[in-house]
Amino acid sequence: MKSVVVTIDGPAGAGKTTVSRQLAEALQYRYVDTGSLYRAVAFSALEAGISPTDDEGLKGLCQNLNLNYTIANGGSRLILNGTDITDKIRTPEISMAASAVSARPVVREFLLDIQKRMGRDKAAVFEGRDMGTVVFPNAEVKFFLDASPKIRALRRYRELEGKGEQSLQDVEREMARRDENDSTRALAPLKPAEDAIYVDSSDIPVAQVVATMKRIVETRINTSTE
Q1: Helix, strand or coil for residue 119?
Q2: The pLDDT value given to residue 90
């Protein structure tokens, strides 16, 4: 059967990670969380004391970053210069720094090359914010996964429980600020691709979302091979 590139874009808390992982598993495709690549750069910048808006500093930083994914314990792990940082980059501080560095051309150029190389072999589900608009504008299947702001904030709050002292109101404010940053930035703003299929996951179980997406992908594959 023909293999394709599937992109799933959308705001934080829409369920992209869960849906993308499960869809990739259902299709027997690779899963690529591109947001974690920006988190890795943000993590490295904070560790090095480099401002997320310092383009020269970020350029030098990126030149010394070796990023790749590996499979361990049944899941995808992000390796930075030989160290597994998967569990270190899911904090509110890293989230905001990642949003800031993602707006810097020097960082986007660095990670664009990495992502495009990952997509050459097809058979992959790419999760992110500009996968269908910038990185893979010719992807065979594009989705934009969304949910209401209240639902997204509640999901993120539950993810962060036990990892910090943020209240639900704090998460809502932070998410609104990040939404504003991501959707209004001049470079690759968060928005659905013109040919993306819009999916609102507010009141739909994950299993149903995944099943619907899988059916659409398989239909596209079958149609293109007829």
Answers
A1: helix
A2: 87
